[in-house]
Design goal:
Number of helices: 7
Structural class: mainly beta
Shape: extended
Radius of gyration: 50 Å
Largest sheet: 6 strands, mixed
Distance between the termini: 113 Å
Strand content: 35-45%
Number of strands: 92
């Protein structure tokens, strides 16, 4: 409280006296002249004010000639007037006894009759003006250089020469630089007039351009420097007539490196000669200079470049390029621009008390970097323990004494010039308060206890002052309170200390009242210091304690910093660092430790070095590193050097450009886009990109083009129509070309579409309203010759102009979400291209009410409370856009129509962004809040489609979710290896194996290829393994000509557009010993598994065939002796026959009632879904029917609309399915095609067809809205199938016989034709099966050795299948011809509400009766089979 009252009293007293002083200053004329103002006075003491004392004029550099007169100007301001003196070369001039030098009244120095000779130069040198005011101090001016031009001497003289008319000529006349301004030329003893064609260069050289006949004659140069003129040799210049003979192009005068100061003019000479006459052009740093439009750049005599008023931006390398049509030559020169020192921060005046520490701040700039020195009252300040240079330029004075008062000047100097700035220091008595708040120039240790003293008792001396801790560099003092104030809660303390024998005393104050300890830092080791402590209360300082003498501890002698540390790059991955032995080694240096760190990181590494240099290898290319060195002696590490930074050399890029994409513009051009390589792989500045392209049919004919490093796209024109081209791009640095991207293909259009007009109206528009969404589908315009670049969908309540969404031209449907229930929406659809939008097509729809639960997935029953909606809900954000930034980041932006036009948020509203992906289907939304109109969503999966929507919340009001925006993240290299890698032998070919696999779980993009590595040594380096590349749509591969009875190891690696993924674990396989077709130990259970198919679940009781045993890696056991094998086969056969006879006898004894029960059980199995195979006692009948009978399978009505698809490829079928119309016309068209030639032997798995079983045909039955399609042309693209197998064996699990299968299109396939679907009412059991047709006569064409699956053919080209449920129909006959299956064609998408009625009406009563009778016969046959 006492300290607070003292501070208030200080402020009030200071304000009062400052006000009085201001009133007095208005009446005092001299007060206005003070630049620094006046200080207030405290009671009982006067405060001296800062005295304005500065130079009005300072001397400048001057050039003179012998015998002339010179004036060096100087004028200073002060009250009273200062005394002016002059120094020359640091020594005062005695002007009283000098008859040639005299002091002018204003302080300037006048020198008459300048003396200058070879051995006597008394007037040349550096002059400085010194101004002094008694009892105040001294200031010095900047230093000015007086240069006296020497005697004229020619370093080169003109020589006789000749020049062709129209060409250029030069005549030398070089003198010492001081005399250049005094040089002139004569032609035929007459003064030569200079103009734009004839110029004199700053060196004195004469340049004549575009020579004419009048330029011929005698030339000489004259130097007139005050004395008699000096003439050069007189030479003749001959002008020859122009001739048609060419001559070599040569430089008569080339530019040379120059150094100039900011504001000066510079001339870069460049003169060339040759026939034809050359023209001159200039470039700076590889950029052409425009000398015609620039005011500062002028071409002198058509060739030399003059730059007026030079700035720092003019520094650089200049190129002079001469070209005469036949050849080109160039010369270059470096222009360096320097700047005189300038003050960024000047010292300021300071008030202080004795024993305080102060800092004068001084910040300067210049080029080269200026050096700073300090002057006190005209004398140089020599750094010591109490005068220190801190922070490069600042002056710190420790422990002030009275003699430190005066004027301090900061003098900055470099090669160009020097400048000075000063400030005054006034030391006040201890009982006089510092008149202003403590400035920043006072140190923290001396800014306390500045309150003026008041009358009252003062404290006595502190007691028991002791040094409780003594170290090498600091001492901790403690004491007890004074006897006069035993509590001492309001006392503060000052500790005064000094070196023993030094009168200059410093002070350190305690940080808070009542504290009775202080630590004195920055002391010298092994030095005696004297300490005393004084207490202060609100009345002032009390008595001082008795002096305490303490000696610091001696310091261990450690090495100083290693001088002259230098680092330079020796290669793109190595840097060499050198240094010297420390000056203060303090003993023998044992070793050095070199520390280095990559710029931008905080991980420092070190290495021990015994010499004075070391080369660090393995660094990153074109990366900046910092280095420092620490020397070690027997005592430990010394002082570290300053960090030095250097960058490794550049190299060719180590990675290809990223995100290469192709855009076909028309029939003759393709646009290429790409991104630079990753920054860590650029290895230097990217200077350009190399694009290579070729026709896919002519891979040897490659065209190459180069673009600049800033260009990230290029239009390739002049291509052929309807031709496929391959493209690849590589990045360039100054070191060369880096790796190129993989070849990317694109095909030009056969013909150019028209884009001179807008598209026509779309041919159809259909809407399907739901509760909060409307599904919109459409077909493109009928005129396909006009370019369509997308579709614009507009919608709104009552008007279609409220919202607009644009979709890609390939899209045919869109779901408008976040709509209001029971609302009438108007929807418009327009096709657009670059010309504009076409004619709109309109449609309206009313969303369903909330009470309609047929389309609602989730609703609450008996909700205890239903909140009443706000009558004025917030408007949802609009214009939501998703900008893909990387493989895991998407930026979401939107607009808010409830904000003003400038879209600035001024209230407390916030936005909620939600996002999800539809794979898997049950993915939940993720949410995040934002207070701006954008949000960065991170942590996404690569190559994944996400949907985003935004809502706004303000207080208790919230909007609905906005329209969704979609974005697919960029691809990333696969992060998992291919899975389920298996290796089997090929039947009949022991030297050939087949490798099967499945795609990676984390493909992160479209797989473009696989690489199979195999070797006989699992520990071999990967580059020693044999490589087999496979295209991306293949999941099996055949490798031939392997060595028999040899173990092989296989690995597979997947690749997408981003690069290679990880390798799979090594799989071992041993080839068979004998080349025998009847012993295949690697045979697995045969079935209909096609290329890459998985085997069916055979159950835990299944045992492999006895023909061989499978080892874990596929190696066979030793072959059995033929006789032993024959005995085993005969024995097994006899046992089998006996068992069959016993079972047959047992079965014939069963009762008729039991047969009826079995028949009823079979019907139940075929007519309902209750059988799930969960009862172990009930075995379903074998549904494989011989000959012309059908296999009946119940349909599993899975509730999941998006079943999880497996990636097992579907093999090709040997026949098509011909659809019929809905009326079930009896006129059935049948087609039979064989696809055996479409699948190469290399890509076929030998696992299929081992037992000649034919796969079941999968027929889709569903009425779901279309979303995807399946291409009906044979290809190797994989198609997702159900998790249950589509093949059946004798050991098939009952569950497998009843599980449903699903077919969907692969994401890589284009939208083409759609699957046929038979839409039936599930309530009618008979309509769950298609009616079989009579098989056509003819020889069988089915080869059981090849796997096959019916190929689905379509008629409705634009229909898509979202989710297809299938029933299985097949036969068991091994050699019978394939049976055509008839299915109804799929109805139109827009007629989904009528398709059930159509399908029902398509069956006539007679046809149903026939089907019922036929099926009854089939059921009887089933009973006969199961009871046999």
């Amino acid at each position: 409280m006492a300290a607070e009252r003292g501070a208030r009293r200080l402020l009030s007293t200071s304000s009062f006296w400052l006000y009085c002083l201001l009133l007095l200053g208005r009446r005092t004329p001299g007060a206005a002249a003070a630049r620094s103002g006046s200080a207030p006075q405290s009671p009982g003491a006067s405060i001296r004010t800062f005295t304005p004392f500065y130079f009005l004029v300072e001397p400048v550099d001057t050039l003179s000639v012998r015998g002339s007169s010179v004036i060096l100007n100087c004028s200073a301001y002060s009250e009273p007037s200062p005394k002016i003196e002059w120094k020359k070369d640091g020594t005062f001039l005695n002007l009283a006894s000098d008859d040639r030098r005299q002091l002018l009244p204003d302080g300037s120095l006048f020198i008459s009759n300048v003396v200058h000779s070879k051995h006597n130069k008394p007037d040349e040198g550096y002059y400085q003006c010194v101004a002094t005011v008694e009892s105040l101090g001294t200031i010095v001016s900047r230093t000015a250089k007086l240069t006296v031009a020497g005697l004229p001497r020619f370093t080169s003289q003109p020589e006789p020469s000749s020049v062709y008319a129209g060409n250029s000529a030069i005549l030398n006349c070089e003198v010492n630089a001081d005399l250049v301004p005094f040089v002139r030329w004569e032609q035929n003893r007459h003064p030569l007039l200079l103009d734009d064609r004839v110029i004199k260069l700053p060196s004195g050289m004469l340049v004549i351009s575009n020579a004419t006949e009048g330029d011929g004659g005698l030339y000489r140069c004259i130097v007139e420097s005050g004395g008699p003129p000096k003439y050069s040799d007189e030479v003749e210049l001959k002008v020859l007539p122009d001739t048609e003979v060419t001559s070599d192009l040569v430089f008569l005068k080339q530019p040379s490196p120059l150094v100039r100061v900011i504001g000066q003019d510079v001339v870069l000479p460049c003169v060339a000669s040759g026939l034809p006459t050359p023209t001159i052009k200039w470039m700076k740093n590889e950029e052409a200079l425009d000398t015609e439009s620039s005011e500062r750049l002028v071409l002198l005599a058509g060739s030399s470049l003059e730059i007026s008023d030079v700035t720092e931006d003019d520094a650089g390398t200049y190129f002079c390029i001469a070209d005469n049509g036949n050849e080109t030559i160039e010369a270059q020169a470096e222009l360096t621009v320097q700047a005189q020192p300038e003050f960024l921060k000047q010292p300021t005046n300071i008030y202080a008390h004795e024993s305080m520490d102060i800092v004068f701040e001084c910040e300067v700039t210049g080029k080269p970097t200026p050096t700073v020195k300090w002057v006190k009252n005209g004398d140089m300040v020599i750094p010591s323990d109490y005068f220190k240079i801190v922070k490069e330029h600042n002056l710190q004075v420790l422990g002030l004494v009275k003699s430190d008062e005066g004027f301090y000047q900061c003098i900055a100097e470099n090669d160009v010039g020097n400048a000075q700035a000063g400030a005054q220091l006034i030391i006040l008595e201890h009982d006089v308060a510092i008149p202003t708040l403590p400035p920043t120039s006072l140190t923290s240790a001396t800014t306390d206890h500045l309150a003026p003293a008041t009358t009252g008792p003062l404290p006595s001396a502190p007691r028991d002052v002791v040094a409780s801790l003594v170290s090498t560099r600091f001492i901790k003092l403690t004491w007890r309170t004074p006897a006069s104030d035993p509590h001492g809660d309001n006392l503060t303390y000052s500790v005064f200390y000094t070196k023993e024998g030094i009168a200059r005393e410093r002070v350190e104050n305690t940080s808070r009242p009542g504290e009775m300890q202080v630590t004195i830092q920055n002391l010298m080791p092994a030095t005696v210091y004297v300490f005393r402590v004084m207490a202060q209360n609100k009345h002032g300082s009390g008595e001082s304690s008795a002096p305490l003498r303490v000696e610091t501890q001696p310091e261990v002698q450690l090495p100083g910093p290693a001088p002259n540390i230098r680092a330079y790059a020796t290669s793109p991955t190595s840097i060499t660092v050198t240094w010297e032995t420390p000056v203060s080694g303090n003993g023998e240096i044992q070793n050095y430790k070199l520390y280095y760190m990559e710029k931008g990181t905080d991980k420092e590494q070190d290495v021990d070095v015994s010499s004075h240099s070391f080369t660090i290898n393995g660094l990153k290319k074109y990366t900046e590193y910092s280095f420092r060195v620490v020397a070690y002696n027997k005592h430990g590490p010394g002082v570290s050097t300053q960090d030095v930074a250097v960058r490794t050399l550049s190299d060719v890029p180590s990675a290809a450009p990223q995100n290469l994409s192709l855009e076909v513009r028309n029939s003759k051009s393709i646009m290429i886009h790409w991104q630079p390589p990753a920054p860590a792989t650029q290895n230097g500045q990217i200077t350009g990109y190399k694009i290579r392209y070729r026709k896919a049919s002519r891979k040897s004919d490659v065209t190459e083009t180069l673009v600049s490093g800033t260009q990230l796209s290029q239009l390739i024109e002049g291509l052929d129509r309807g031709t496929e081209y391959n493209f690849r791009v590589a990045a360039l640095t100054i070191n060369g070309t880096g790796p190129a991207t993989d070849w990317l293909s694109a095909e030009t259009f056969e013909s150019d579409l028209d884009e001179t007009r807008v598209p026509e109206v779309p041919s159809s528009l259909h809407v399907r309203p739901l509760v909060t969404s409307i599904v919109v589908s459409w077909t493109p315009p009928e005129n396909q010759n006009i370019v369509v670049r997308g579709y614009a969908i507009g919608y709104g309540i009552g008007s279609p102009h409220a919202q607009t969404i644009k979709v890609d031209y390939k899209q045919r449907y869109y779901t408008i979400e976040n709509l209001d229930p029971s609302s009438h929406y108007v929807i418009t659809l327009k096709a657009f291209n670059n010309v504009g939008e076409g004619i709109p097509l309109y449609e309206s729809a009313v969303t369903r009410p909330h009470t309609d639960t047929s389309e609602v997935d989730l609703f609450v029953i008996n909700a205890p409370y239903t909140p009443v909606p706000d009558p004025t809900p917030m408007m949802p954000p609009v214009g939501v856009q998703a900008s893909i930034l990387s493989h895991d980041t998407i930026r979401i932006t939107w607009a808010d129509n409830s904000l003003p036009k400038h879209q600035k948020i001024t209230d407390s509203r916030y936005y909620t962004v939600r996002w999800k992906t539809n794979i898997p289907a049950n993915t939940k939304y993720k949410n995040a809040n934002a207070t701006t109109l954008s949000y960065l969503v991170t942590g996404l999966k690569p190559n994944t489609l996400y949907e985003f929507s935004v809502m706004v919340t303000k207080g208790r009001r919230s909007s609905t979710w906005s329209m969704t925006a979609h974005g697919t993240t960029f691809e990333l290299v696969p992060t998992s290896p291919p899975k389920d890698v298996t290796v089997v032998s090929k039947e009949g070919k022991p030297k050939t194996i087949i490798v099967n696999w499945q795609p990676p779980s984390e493909a992160n993009g479209k797989i473009t290829g696989y690489i199979i590595y195999y070797s006989t040594d699992v520990n071999a380096e990967i580059h020693d393994w044999v490589i087999e590349p496979v295209v991306g749509n293949r999941l099996t591969h055949q490798i031939q000509e392997l060595t028999l009875d040899t173990p092989y190891y296989f690995k597979i690696q997947a690749r997408n557009s981003k690069g290679m993924g990880p390798m799979s674990e090594a799989v071992q396989f041993r080839t068979p010993k004998a080349d025998s077709s009847d012993k295949m130990p690697n045979d697995q259970a045969s079935g209909s598994g096609g290329k890459g198919s998985r085997l069916p679940d055979l159950g835990s009781d299944y045992k492999p065939p006895m023909s061989g045993s499978n080892s874990p890696h596929g190696s066979p056991t030793s072959p059995l002796d033929s006789n032993m094998l024959l005995v085993i086969i005969v024995s097994v056969g006899v046992i089998t026959i006996v068992v069959v006879v016993i079972i047959a006898v047992f079965c014939t004894r069963r009762t008729t009632s039991h047969q009826k029960k079995k028949r009823a059980a079979c019907k139940s199995v075929n007519g309902s879904h209750k059988y799930k195979g969960n009862s172990k006692d009930v075995k379903p009948p074998d549904l494989w029917i011989h000959h012309e009978r059908l296999e009946l399978k119940p349909i599993d009505k899975s509730p999941d609309p998006n079943p999880i698809m497996t990636d097992t490829p579907i093999p090709r079928n040997s026949q098509d399915i011909t659809p019929v119309d809905n009326s079930m016309d009896s006129n059935i068209h049948q087609r039979r095609n064989s696809y055996r030639g479409h699948e190469s032997e290399d890509s076929m798995s030998t696992l299929a067809g081992r037992r000649g079983m034919r796969p079941k045909m999968m027929m889709p039955f569903d009425s779901q809205p279309p979303q995807q399609s399946v291409r009906n042309t044979p290809s190797t693209d994989t198609m997702p199938a159900s998790s249950s197998q589509t093949c059946c064996t004798d050991h098939q699990d009952p569950e497998g016989a009843t599980s449903s299968s699903y077919l969907a299109s692969s994401q890589e396939e284009d939208s083409g034709q759609s699957l046929p679907t038979a839409h039936v009412r599930p309530s009618h059991p008979l309509k769950s099966f298609a009616v079989p047709a009579v098989p056509p006569p003819g020889p069988p064409t089915y080869d059981p050795a090849l796997p096959s699956t019916p190929l689905l053919s379509q008629q409705a080209l634009n229909h898509h299948i979202h989710s297809v449920k299938t029933a299985s129909i097949g036969t068991l006959g091994r050699s019978r011809p394939p049976m055509p299956v008839v299915v109804p064609s799929a109805p139109e998408v827009q007629e989904t509400t009528r398709m059930l009625e159509d399908s029902e009406s398509s069956y006539e009563p007679d046809e149903l009766t026939k089907e019922m009778a036929h099926l009854e016969g089939l059921m009887k046959d089933l009973n006969a089979i199961t009871t046999a």
